[in-house]
Task: structure prediction
Amino acid sequence: MKTWLLLLLLFVAPTILAEERPIPCTAEAYGQFNFWLGNWTSYDKDGKKQGDNSITSIMGGCTLQENWTGRGGQYQGTSYNFYDRVSGKWYQTWVDNQGGHLFLSGSFDGTSMQLSGSQNTGKETVVNRITWTPLEDGRVRQHWEVSKDDGQTWSTAFDGYYQRNP
Result:
């Protein structure tokens, strides 16, 4: 009798427990940034190559990992992008091989993902605002703007048009 009970617990209990737990990172909001997934080459508005970028979904769809290479391989950076269901916001943490870093947060408005955050450079506080917009021709535009006057005026730090690699 005890053997049957033990077998029942070994085979049935995991199934019951698995059915009760929701599958993480499957809600619609987790897919809002999926338009950026893939391998890309970035060009400026005049068609000059800026760099290469690979965006992959990791950790069961909970995180997007970006791996950027620019300036002929001299500049490299990685970001982790994730959706937080509690705050309802997206977050990005960026680090690069030049000692740079960004901590951004924001949301998807139905057409673009926009993340922003303040950064103290040691001399001044800079607000970074980056917007990713999927374009009708399949490209993605990444427009990075900076403000040194708390958002009163903005200047472009990077404007890239990502073309998906075959």
Remarks:
- The longest helix spans residues 2-20.
- Strands lie at 38-43, 49-58, 63-70, 75-84, 89-96, 101-108, 113-120, 125-134, 140-147, 155-164.
